[in-house]
Amino acid sequence: LLFPVSNLCGKCRPRDTGLLQPSLNFLYWSLHQTTPYSQQRAVAVLLSNVSLLELLQKVLECTWLRSPPSGPAYLSSEDALLCSGWLLVASLLLYQHRYNTEVHQTLSLDLKEVLNAVIFRNKKPILLLVSIMQFLRAALRQNFSSSLLVIVGQNTAQDATQPQPPSLQDATLHPLATQQVFSLVVSLQNLLVHKDLLLSQAVVACLETLVEYLYVKNQDVALHVASQPWHRFLLFTLLNGGQKSFLQPEVLRLMTLFVRYQSSNIISQKEISQILQEAAEANLAELPEATSCALHLFLCQV
């Protein structure tokens, strides 16, 4: 079925949402719900379809070509198609790298536009933001060097009126610019305050991958990002809801991040002791899987 469905997608236009939406979803699940051997074959089939990749290029570009909605953010059919497109491309990036699959057509994206889609949200639906962050994570994990992806139009020039210390030079973070990194971090922090479970999971995962990327490129920038005092305020904001326990997946993962990068101004021995105490008193068998995994990673990091 991959052959006819992928060929059908390649003959469509981005506005053919009624046909493309289920088709892209089928391709996405074909990649994920299969055996590793079949997965490798599926990746090869999709990456050999030039028309499909050209269609995906046009779909992704619609993210910033469309006018933002004037009313409350909701998932329209166009937005749903964008979600499917970003998720599928993120998966193709991941699996192309895993299996070293031959690429017959590259995707060219403006990194500045991708980042601005998250930084300047313009009432984008939560699911669309999550999908774009999934793509951003995949690109960060490969240092923007995938043979499937070409970054174009990156703007690394800094405003001359904003001096910066020598240790924060943009050249070390290429293709990201220092100001883009800080703007993205602030935007991710603001998104966490919404306390939406799906959004929180995506934001924390994106923040983890971003700091890992920065640590490889420039440790000073990574440690600076991980130790921003605003993170501590953010933690207390997350704990100020109906569920005040530290045993929340997004809180545990944030704590793990701060312990990993030794951000003692964000998480102190007191918070670590509180988490250990809560874990000791909890019925571990009744914890949700996401919480159990996050707690395991936290304890290992400690």
TrEMBL record:
Transmembrane segments: none annotated. InterPro entries: Immune_Signaling-Apoptosis_Reg (IPR052133). GO terms for biological process: meiosis I. PANTHER family: BCL2 INTERACTING MEDIATOR OF CELL DEATH, MEIOTIC DOUBLE-STRANDED BREAK FORMATION PROTEIN 1. This is MEI1 protein.
